[in-house]
Amino acid sequence: MDRPVTAGQLKEKSLFQDSDGSAVPARTVCHNCSKLKIFLGALAFSFFAKGFSGSYMKSMSSQIERRFEISSSIVGIIDGSFEIGNLMVMVLVSYLGPRVHRPKIIAVGCLIMSVGAFLSVMPQFLMGRYNYERITVSVDNSSTSVSACSPAWSEGPAATDATETLSTVINAGCEKTTNSYLWLFVLVGNLLRGIGEAPIMPLGVSYIDDFSKEENSAFYIGLVRSSGMFGPTLGFLLGSFCASLWVDVGAVDVDAISINPKDTRWVGAWWLGLLICGAVNFIASLPFWFLPYSLPKEGENENLKMSHLSVQGDHCKMDPPAQPQLKFSEAVKDFLPAVRKLFGNPIFVVFIFLTILQYNSLVGIITYEPKFMEQQFNVSVAKAIFLIGVVLLPVTILGMFLGGFLIKKFKLHITEMAKFACITFLVAYLLNLLYFTCSCEVLQVAGLTAPYSGIKHISSSKHIYVASCNAECSCKVDQWDPVCGDNGITYMTACFAGCKSSSGTGRNMVFHNCSCVEGQGLGLGNSSAVLGQCQRESCTKAFPYFLALQTACAFFLALGGTPTYMIMFRSVSPDLKSFAVGIETLGGRVLGGLPAPIYFGALIDETCLKWGTKSCGGSGSCRVYDTKEFRNVYLGLIAGLRAGCCLLYLVLSVLIMKRFKPDGKEMADIKNAERSASKELDTANKREILPGSRTSEESEETYM
């Protein structure tokens, strides 16, 4: 027979909320472990996992571009496939989310992300070893030096070193035609990652907001999102490590490779980190399989009538409520009214446009920032990725956490959150404009950006590759194996420098008697050249200044990130929170995340001065850019997009203050006050009020 439950026993119970908002008994455990906290931990790790794999893929964009010999715009399409995956399921998942088992849907999403990561690795095992473009070849077992400037060389002698598979002879080691399309594996893998990630944000955030105290909701969400930022940090660190390793690590003699990680032909072990990402995503799926459909509202256990509980013996043993059945016809019927209700809210509409512009600028930065640092400041991609991981992302984490903390600490209303977000973004934008002061000289490449006579920049739009100093060398204009002359000028190949002899092997090879270097007024003893592009000292000096500006800008953007995100939650109906998150994420992904890497990449391609050549012919990836044009295009796009964001922030602030101006408080606060008063009344009369008598607002929260 069921016995009454004492007040002390009641505190040990936990209740579920059924679909009608009433309290029903649920199986509990006789210990203090909170399933909400378990969910918070699991969701934080899933945020970590998706950020880990996402940032790693972003950091490897340059390596993928060079490995498959594709343009930046194609890399943008690969990157955009992730957003296409989100588009395929985001609306459905976010709309049906509260009506399904949210933890299990998140678990399935993590598994799909794992499959996508493993699929992206396949080309590495289907393609042969990477053959980078080069012309400097030393004869095996011989001390004879090869002259770069000679008719014999121009005919393209084959490499004789059997330990090197790095042939540059046209059609020698020509890849099969099918290999040119193996990047589709990466595209499909990225597509699957997008599908798998779709349910994590809307379902996870709405789950927290449903079952936590309203004053704790912003803090929990900020905590989960900031905890998830450790994923991108470690993802970029892993990307930096893999980018410093040769793509065929363990299969070739690294000492025989004549290029270093600063060279634009260098390809890191992009595939290695994807194996780790797949394993992490798989682990992230495990906890969600053991979490319930719903949880008790945080802090409301004592408001429930004790007569609704029964205890068998001295054990906490109850049956879980059955999950409400989802009626598809009803869900479809309510879809259009829900859409009209959301887009009839002007604050939400402005918020969506703001999100789209922010996504455009953010995705463009994340995708091409390592390339920009490499071309503009002469740092290796591995170093650029490392700095993003250890400097910029930790600052971003701090800003996001601090933003959520300030909301909780000062109990900011929606009007105050709007002002705070607007001010922080304006400060970040002003710092963003200072990027243009970080100027850097254009790389002086003979025949591209500088004439062979040196010093002055070429004024003609047509490049002049051949000069009197190398006219007899019969150099091939489609080759790129740069050397730096003693005069500080970079030449496309040692042949274009007119070098007659060489010494050393591999990366230590030095060319001598270079006629084009001699033409700069140098003596015969100083007419040598070494492998690689010349260093630009002014760029190296400007880099710390640029990095400091980036750090400050990232902090202010992140500081206003959480308040901006909470504006959406406080300006829509409670029953539409999950759907609003899905629409916001969908709009940002489709109109921001999808097109941004494509048009950023296409415009960056326009600044390319020298394209690589595939072994079977055809254009490959870009070898050198006009750094001045690159900077203007890249920074100009970001500044333009963020200027639009500034305008929308101002409009959003005005709308919020105008809508919630009466009594100086927003509508959400009024509802909160009403619920607080109701809770106090329930507490005082908890033995007389039934759980089914809760307010309609509380019932609606079941579907938030």
From TrEMBL:
One of its GO terms (cellular component) is basolateral plasma membrane. SUPFAM superfamilies: Kazal-type serine protease inhibitors, MFS general substrate transporter. Keywords: Cell membrane, Disulfide bond, Ion transport, Membrane, Transmembrane, Transmembrane helix, Transport. InterPro entries: Kazal_dom, Kazal_dom_sf, MFS_dom, MFS_trans_sf, OATP. It comes from the Eukaryota. It is a multi-pass membrane protein. It is found in: Cell membrane. The chain crosses the membrane at residues 36-53, 74-93, 105-126, 229-247, 267-291, 347-368, 380-406, 418-436, 543-567, 633-657. One of its GO terms (molecular function) is bile acid transmembrane transporter activity. Residues 676-689 have a biased composition (Basic and acidic residues). Its main location: membrane. Residues 39-661 form the Major facilitator superfamily (MFS) profile domain. Residues 676-704 are annotated as: Disordered. Belongs to the organo anion transporter (TC 2.A.60) family. This is Solute carrier organic anion transporter family member.
